[in-house]
Amino acid sequence: MSDAEGLRVTVTHLQMHRPPERYPHAPLGFQLALLKCREIPLHFYRYIYDRVGRNWHWTAALRLDDEDLRERLADPAREVHVLYIHGAPAGFFELLRMDGGQECRLMLFGLMSHAIGKGLSRWFLGCAIRRAWELGPKFVSVETCTLDHPAALPLYQKMGFVPVSRREVLEVPLSDEERARILFR
């Protein structure tokens, strides 16, 4: 595959080896609800995944067929938590226990565009980190890349994650036609 068919991306792998001493408080002025999803419908998962990740070129889960996505989401080692602001979906995070529970990976984390810039990111990331540590791992990890929000890497580091490795990958964006076909099955 040539570079013309994809985007060169630097992926940074980060780890945290002890829980934070303090977690950020919820910002005032918002009616917030953070709910763990059980048996999340595929169409809703694809919707929040797309709405959170569209500007950052998230594609992997959208390209899964129904059976593969259903299997992924049914994995008992995986959790999806959805954030609601004033009753409407506003973001989500996804955790995956790995290596027999030794590692908890923050697989996905983000806010929808209408929730960005409102002072929610630190608190919301703190919620994800707290839940990851509640699962009892030896360490928590996350990956971010140069396609993510420019504040993602600094925020992860501010919250206590430390970069441990970097790699280059080629990301193939979704075409408008492919996105429409996936989201409107």
> What does the oligomeric state look like here?
single chain
Kindly report the spatial arrangement of strands forming the biggest sheet: 2-3-4-5-6-1-7
Report mean pLDDT, rounded to a whole number. 94
- Uncertain segments: none
Overall geometry comes to globular
CATH topology: Aminopeptidase
Number of strands: 7
Write up this protein:
The structure is a single chain. With 185 residues, the chain is α+β, with helices and mostly antiparallel strands. It has a single domain, classed as Gcn5-related N-acetyltransferase (GNAT) (Aminopeptidase), CATH 3.40.630.30. Helix content is 27%, strand content 33%. It contains 5 helices and 7 strands; from the N terminus they run ββααβββαβαβα. The protein has a 7-stranded mixed beta sheet, with helices on both faces. A hairpin with a 2-residue loop joins strand 3 and strand 4. The protein is globular and about 45 Å long. 24% of the residues are buried. The model has no long low-confidence stretch (mean pLDDT 94).
Topology (SSEs and partners):
Blueprint: E1 7-16, E2 32-37, H1 42-53, H2 66-74, E3 78-85, E4 88-98, E5 103-111, H3 121-134, E6 139-145, H4 152-158, E7 162-171, H5 176-183
Short description:
The protein is of the alpha+beta class and 185 residues long.
Which terms summarize this structure?
185 residues, acyltransferase activity, acyltransferase, 7-stranded mixed β-sheet, alpha+beta, GNAT_dom, Aminopeptidase, EC 2.3.1.-, transferase
